[in-house]
Amino acid sequence: MRREGTLLLKRSEVAALLRLEECIEAVEHVFRLHGEGKVAPPGILGVHARDGGFHIKAGLLEMGGRTYFAGKTNANFPHNMKRHALPLIQGVIVLCDASNGYPVALMDSIEISIIRTGAATGVAARHLARANSSVVSIFGCGNQGRISLRALAKVRPIKRVFAFDRDEDESRRFAHELSGELGIEVTAVADPAQSVLQSDICVTCTPSKQYFLNRDMVAPGTFIAAVGADNEDKQELDPQLLVSNKIVVDLLEQSATIGDLHHALDKGLVTRADVHAELGEVVAGRKTGRTSEEEIIIFDSTGVAFQDVVAAAVVYERAMREGRGTIFDFVE
Amino acid sequence: MRREGTLLLKRSEVAALLRLEECIEAVEHVFRLHGEGKVAPPGILGVHARDGGFHIKAGLLEMGGRTYFAGKTNANFPHNMKRHALPLIQGVIVLCDASNGYPVALMDSIEISIIRTGAATGVAARHLARANSSVVSIFGCGNQGRISLRALAKVRPIKRVFAFDRDEDESRRFAHELSGELGIEVTAVADPAQSVLQSDICVTCTPSKQYFLNRDMVAPGTFIAAVGADNEDKQELDPQLLVSNKIVVDLLEQSATIGDLHHALDKGLVTRADVHAELGEVVAGRKTGRTSEEEIIIFDSTGVAFQDVVAAAVVYERAMREGRGTIFDFVE
Questions:
Q1: pLDDT tens digits, B235-244
Q2: How many CB atoms lie within 10 A of CB B326?
Q3: Do A10 and B58 touch (CB under 8 A)?
Q4: How many other C-beta atoms lie within 10 A of the C-beta of residue A191?
Q5: Which residues pair with A188 in a beta bridge?
Q6: Chain B residue at shortest CA distance from A50
Q7: Phi-psi region of B5 (alpha: psi -120 to 50; beta: other; left: phi over 0)
Q8: CB of B93 within 8 Å of any CB in chain A?
Q9: Which of B67, B72, B92 to probe by mutation at the A interface, max A CB count within 10 Å?
């Protein structure tokens, strides 16, 4: 019996423990397992509140001989910053030993939600963007824009970035910060149309409810990571973009209900059969990734529970090795 | 902005803060709200593990001007005690302010799961058992047997109790403890058939996967609380018992899938239309409760998320008033 108490990890500790490179490798690993049919289908549960909502993602994963369960409860309240000076997304991850149910850790979910999503963008770009991709457009210059660019810079030789945000202060701050941090040219742009046409990779990570990226803006060969849409109301891509371009999703069931895909399905422009692959199938080599320099490939990212499980397990194991966090015994 | 950190409450603190009387009233209140259509449908999510499973129940509730969200993650590992010296059920409740998503408390779920279930049995008995009910049979002499009897003793003039458990040591210990605590006659019985026939109320709260209570054992007028079955494999009542007796469920959707009801539905012995009411409808006065001294009424209890939300909110509010628990800031 292991009965060491429950490890509590706050946001700053999680941020220090979860390195992006390690998270990209871990997330790639779990997508591969999923593609090989070795990961049980994850679960998702939503509860609406007046000014926002709660969603729970839960899943199970074997890692290094241990099996972990993680359930992430995230609150998403769009007006939080202005009304309450609280983050838009807040939450907690419960990590359990899946051999006996013991809650081994409780940790803040904010950093994991951000980083594991960025890591999926990196994994997708590694398999779906042209190898020599060097120019990137980013729509949405918040936390997710930052981590997406950092992840892309880990997997592709990024040299030039165009940053767009409806709030121009945000895009300027983003350009200043990220150019310094990554040592590449990052430019804030007011009208993204021309920049997207020059880009090898385009990431959309906004809270938009109306699409803003359409067919005319996208050059042949572009890889598009559509990250923002993660509920039924959000939308970033013109549904026409999904017609006759290669669609890869993180999890078909989720993309078909809460991703950009679902708008195209709703309009009858595509069917589920038009989806080329789930990302895990590509990573596992069961489906092809990019097969030409010209094809436009769209990755519809909605965020899968197994990304949370693996990231939480990585954080927990490093915390235990390095003696971080606070032990609290809930069952006294 | 309220930003007081997250309150951590361990099992012993929750046990001290959640009084049964108060929990019965709170649970009755939330069932009434549900019966009045004022509670949003709760959500439930299950994840299977090799030796057990995890289930998450989540819901939203307004209480005293504040709106709370609670998500309960419970691990259920039947062999835990023997293999790991850990409880069969373990878990954590995340309680959030539903106006902004802030996680106001994290608390051990064990006591809440036990007490809110016993409280529902009490509420159901108050509305469905004969007013002069004084003789009780209890099947299953664990934690749930104890709290069921305590709850019944709060709402009905209980004088005599028959206790049955497959482990006779358990039923003897139960009889000894509860007779002392409640000052009533509690007898361990080896063969429950005769005792049930003499009983006004019968509670089944076992982990059984095969039914053991059948029509011949139950006298007219009995109130049966079927508490044990809370997943698709568990069963306590002969499906024939549900035929032509009054069935009240806590939540139709759950009883039809994980309660004793679902076995009778599967066999085609009853339909959903044969269910008389959800408990909340009876509490709210929208459906009748007991209408004769002779009818047998069965309450199929599966455990609803809003019971957890209200119990967690009661615990949290008392903890804040009394200055209990430990504050931990996850978002530093």
A1: 999 999 999 8
A2: 15
A3: no
A4: 7
A5: A163
A6: B99
A7: left
A8: no
A9: B92
